[in-house]
Amino acid sequence: MMITRSELLDVVYRFYPRGVHNTDRIYVPPNEPVYKDTEEYRRLVEAANRGRSEYPSWNAMIDRLGDRYGLQNESLHLFSGGPDPAYSARIWLIDETALSFHVSLLGPYYGIHLPGIPEEEPVAREVAQEIEATYPGYRPIPPEIGNEVVPDVAMSVVLMGEATIYMCLFSEVWTWVDPV
Question: Quick check: 149 and 161 in contact, CB under 8 A?
Fold first, then answer.
């Protein structure tokens, strides 16, 4: 089944309050204390709590990948209690170039952020196979949809109108590994 923009926006809006263009609601910036009182934020916290409790599956998967590649787990911050929407890690390819990958806690989705070098392809295939074996039913979000800006959503790291579907479902960690 093909992932659609509409499907992903429905997921995003379930976990992030919509902003000023939604006439039945007043915009609440993420840095305001009342943001944490929204139903969407409560759902995001519940998803992160689920991610903490299911962390052993993620850890076993990245251990398997770490046996083959230089890997950096970027999900340890989940244990600081933050409302992170995904597990994240990166694999170092050559020099200081890395491929990052993310498994969403908000829905059955994953993403592999490719740096745009020839060495990425076999590694990306292995990562996808590991994710799909560990998380049956999870599907990759195509770049043409994942890079779309989400209307009316703000995140703590970006201003309203700049958050992409990838950022909402995988956190700002998605932006830490940009293509060369």
Answer: yes
Helix-strand-coil percent breakdown of the chain, rounded to 5? 45, 20, 40
Residues 90-136 pLDDT 10s: 999 988 899 999 999 999 999 999 989 998 999 999 999 999 999 99
Rounded to whole angstroms, what are the CA distances from 140 to 4, 66, 96, 124, 164?
A: 11, 21, 25, 11, 15
End-to-end CA distance of the chain: 32
In angstroms and rounded to an integer, the radius of gyration of the C-alpha atoms of the chain is 16
CA geometry: angle 45, 50, 52, nearest 5 deg: 95
**Domain positions in the chain:** 5-176
Amino acid symbol at 170 = F
- Residue that has been written with the tokens 């908000």 in this structure: 106
